[in-house]
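#lab-general

N.A. 3:47 PM
ok so I finally got the sequence cleaned up, no stray characters, all 707 residues accounted for. can someone with queue access submit it? mine expired

B.Y. 3:52 PM
send it over

N.A. 3:53 PM
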Amino acid sequence: MAVLNKIRQRSLFLILIIALALFSFVLSGLFQNGSALSNKSQNVVATINGKEISREDFLRKVEYAQRQMGQGVTNTQAMNRVWDQEVRQAVMESQYETLGFTVERDQMRDLLKSTLAGSPEFQNEAGLFDENKLNEYIANLKATSEEAYQQWIDYEQSIAASGMQQDYVNMVKAGVTGTLAEGKVEHELENNKVDIRYVQVPFSSISDSTVAVSKSEISSYIKDHKKEFQVEASRDINYVEFREVASLDDEKEIASSLTGLLNNSVVYNDISKTNDTILGFAQVKDNETFVNSNSDIKFDDRFVFKSALPKNLADSLYNKSIGSIYGPYKDNGFLKLSKLVAETFMPDSAKARHILIPFVGSRGATAETTLTEVAAKKTADSVMAIVKANPSKFVDMLDLSADKVSNEKEGVLDWFTYNAMVPEFRDYTFQNSKGDVGVVKTDFGYHVIEILDQTSKEKAVKIATIARQIEPSDATIDKVFRDASKFEIAVADKDFQAVSKENDYAVRPVKGIEILQENIPGLSSQRQIVRWTFNEETSVGDVKRFNIPGGYAIVQLAAKNEAGLMSVENASAIVLPKLRKEKKAAIIKDRVKATTLDALASEEKQTIKTASALNMKNPTISGAGREPIIVGAAFGLKEGETSKLIVGANGVYMVEVTKVSPAATLENYQAFANRVGQQKANVVNTKLYEALKDASEIDDNRAETVQ
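B.Y. 4:20 PM
back already:
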């Protein structure tokens, strides 16, 4: 009883506790539901006409696309390709579902057959498509690799989608035709002709500087043409680059190190305990080893003609004696030191025939090759002896040759240039004479070569070049880092533009960066910068340093442009010329008092021009350009009638029609109707999908789910 009394006394307290518990339960449910909604949002990349594209499936396709597209393709590029494919598929599927389009098993097999008919792995011995091989291939994928099988399913779906899309497009095309009435209109637009005399008062006759356009007028124009100026959310930035580029001192240091290689050097030998003299580039005989030990570019063991040499080398070394040196000189991002090491006289092209004797392990070997290298050399020497003794036997020896392509031409390799062959083959055919026969070993095997012909010989030279890439020194790289850091600190609490100007740094503005954009003008691929600008924690005026290839970029977020109407500043480039034209047209019309061509020409100091055979199909006026409004107005006048002032695309006009030539009446307009129908069909190919896409409901969550 005492307990019950206490409960009654504290009833209000208990009610509050129960209420709080219930409230907590409700809140818990809300948070859990909210979490579920959030998780759902994070797992759905997009919703297109009610169809959800899951994040997992989308990223799997992006990964596969990136592998298919190869190296150098960024994740964003692969993602955009998959996005376009997914949107197209979803948009078109909504149409197929409405119409009841499907791809049945037999049709799917036909589509696969037509697509894969040329693939050798699905062909039988007769070269025909074998469905059993396809079934075996699919079964093997399913049994061995879940990922590969899924990729095959994706491939089948893409084939099916292509088939349905073609059926859909053909169905739409079948519904568009050109009627006889349309054919008649087409004929008349093309063949009704007028000749005119006209005076043009060009807009350029009024200076832009005299026509003021206010921001409020631009704003009003934007509001009156909202559809033209709808934009997605975007960001504007300013940035300053700090590039790790070699300084003049760095170049001088590299040039000095190259010059130092010319002279002999003395090096202490730890083994012999004596000083050894190392020959410098000027005296060394083994130029290849010396170059390869000291150069960023390997020795080029080729002769070249004067025409193939850079102009500075051609002028400085070609006619010099062997051992002459030129440099250091600057060339394509390198400092170089070049030496003339050999010269010869040779043709610029040759013609030869050969017999290729491969050996086991050579590139020319096949499954039937059994000769060892020693045996192949012995065979080649024997063939050479026979051919030298009796050249007519060359063709008889082709049965021994592994080069089946040249065998069909009696072993002949038609005219080829110096660099067309492997080095050993090249050297023999260009450094010997017409009629010579010899054996040469290459990676392909042993060649018995007969030189059939050569062009006239001219001087060629071999040049050894030591090249050092022009790169910034550690001191320069450190200075760039310090300069970037100082600037970053300075602009944290000072004006970005002012500090840049004070330090003579170039500020580069970039406007209209969109959330899924990858490239930034001047900085190439920089997703990290784009993501930072759209981060909710980043405010206008914030500055951040980013690592970029070969340096740093100090970036300032200059503006956040929300989705909706384009700002006055961004729209000015589009709107300003239009409003100026409107104002110039009003000025011209207000000041003109003339009512005839002669009076207008005199009053505005213009000439009277003529234009013949104008038609509505191509409304272009000679001497004035494309002017559909003016041409249309001319067709509204009678012969001999003069128009009032008309505002065109390029000025204000007055037109007098001098001749009207109606199109001839035809008995039948079917040919023109057919042309109209074809024009409509062509538009189906180019415009159908875009029209369906514009009419679709697309909720794009990529920025929140996969970026």
